[in-house]
């Protein structure tokens, strides 16, 4: 019956393919694929024209139109195979796959074409219409697989030249696949699918034209990979499965009576759910991959893919999942397994269990580092097959396997892991999800990957050891600071003890002793708090009169020679700091200046203030220091010129605290001439004294914390 839309649709397809053939014929006949495309365009023109003629005049017959459609499909398959032809000179497996796909496709076309021709000659139907539909579906599915194979395995640089061609041919075969699948399910071809088919074919012609205009003499670099072959095989399997599911659903509906439609939907839903479970099954995927590797490839592994996969896993610097677990999964994945365990050598030379994957841990997991297995691996880099060991222990010289390994009921392979030439770890791989025939290729790849991953384990262990060492260093550093401050307290208390024998009956001495002891207790309490808190604690900062503090320091250290002298103006200079810590810092610098200066020398303290900063110059005429010593050692912790009596952290500690206040310490010195320490501190501005809310900043009520009370100092000599 005349159908206006169907006529227009197929007429558009006829005209479009005719124009494409003319374009190719007049301008582009350079490659085999170009000539195949011309041949396919002409066959498609005849096919679409026969459908137009049938709707207008009722001719040609169904058999002729069916034969023309088979010829059209074979033409597009030849275009795809022509794109793969250049792969024969690259790898043998590519040629095998091309021949396998080509043989399968043309075998289906030949069978369908022969049966249709015999039916035409004998005027007798040899096969049912459903079988013809199944053949068309299989032909369309193979065409889709060819397109997917070409695209997946072509180089990135060559995809631009075949992109439109692949999209066009894929659209053609995919449309036929859905149309014939729908017809198989419902027992007839949908009129909507059939009428729109010609227009769909016409719409893909511009894509083919763009391909011919933009094409270059650039062969398709076809590189077959296991993943590509796996996806193609899975797609073919899914297509065949869906065909059987459709046929089963049809017969369920026919035989189901009144419940036929409901039973058909139930059957198809169950079949699709089972297909999903099957395709996501690790065991099924492993068996399919082993089958592909054994029958389509000369080597078992795609080494490029395996190496990239391992690199991606090990490049993850996070601990989720932990590194031992990732290493187990890498080694197990090479052998189609999903379980395993890892032992790593500890500091005592024994092997401790680090992690397990999909394996239940036994009660005892430690392996003695002197056991027979460890000695065996130290002599031979063998991979032990536990199944083979159980059946023939003599093959492994009656080797004794430790119980922590044998307790894993699903253990399969024992893989030694070497760091250099020393045994560093042992990996146990669980049984494979598919039957794997082990040969030299498996063992070589596993050994290489085991050595690479072992280096990562050793590096991670070294980082952990370094982190622990840094923590101990921090504790040692805090202890050194504590000892340095305790030396000052010991000196104070020792002075009290020496004078107590002569002045124990003096009430004033007793008061000074109590005050000094109380200060020592407070100082030691602060030290304990500082050790408990790793972060530096600056203490409570308050405005201080620096000039007044310098005078008190000069008075305190006047008992040593040479006595420090204070120079410069006596105007108050206010800084904000913790009084105890600033006293300790400046006192340390004055004490060092006195130690470096002979008794007849000079130590001067000079203050110079600006609007926002003040500089204290502590100058001496002592031995001086070289420029190299100042640059390399003076402010470096634990470097001392006082031998065993010095901690080497006083100058470092002083500069760090001054920097916390926003200042700095600079040094100028010359050997034999003396040194000058410049202590730069920011000043603070106080509000007017007339404001009652502000405290009196110039008044310093508390005694110098580092100094002994005046009466105690006066009693220094017995």
Largest sheet, spatial ordering of strands: 2-1-5-4-3
Per DSSP E runs of 2 or more residues, the count of β-strands stands at: 12
Report the sheet with the most strands, covering strand number, pairing sense and barrel closure: 5 strands, antiparallel
- Tally of contiguous helical segments: 22
Q: Helical amount among residues, as a percent range?
A: 55-70%
CATH class placement of the largest domain: Mainly Alpha
Q: How does the overall form come out from the CA principal axes?
A: elongated
Mean pLDDT: 76
CATH fold annotation of the largest domain:
Rhopdopsin 7-helix transmembrane proteins
Distance between the termini: 136 Å
Return the domain count: 4
Rg, Å, rounded? 46 Å
Alpha-beta content class: alpha+beta
Taking pLDDT < 50 over at least 5 consecutive residues as the criterion, the unreliable ranges are 86-94, 216-223, 534-538, 640-648, 688-718
What does this structure look like?
GO terms for molecular function: ATP binding; protein histidine kinase activity. It catalyses: ATP + protein L-histidine = ADP + protein N-phospho-L-histidine. With 718 residues, the protein is an alpha+beta fold. It folds into 4 domains: 4-216, Rhopdopsin 7-helix transmembrane proteins (Up-down Bundle); 229-296; 318-466, 2-Layer Sandwich (Beta-Lactamase), CATH 3.30.450; 542-682, Heat Shock Protein 90 (2-Layer Sandwich). 60% of the residues lie in helices and 11% in strands. It contains 22 helices and 12 strands. The protein has helices at residues 4-27, 32-57, 62-84, 92-122, 129-153, 156-186, 191-214, 226-255, 260-279, 282-296, 303-314, 323-334, 372-379, 386-391, 403-406, 440-503, 507-532, 546-556, 579-595, 627-634, 650-660, 710-714; strands spanning 340-345, 351-357, 384-385, 411-419, 422-430, 542-545, 564-567, 574-577, 603-609, 613-620, 664-670, 674-682. The strands form 3 sheets. Strands 2-1-5-4-3 form a 5-stranded antiparallel sheet, with helices on both faces. A hairpin with a 3-residue loop joins strand 11 and strand 12. Helix 8 crosses helix 10 (282-296) and helix 16 (440-503) runs antiparallel to helix 17. The protein starts with a helix and ends with a helix.
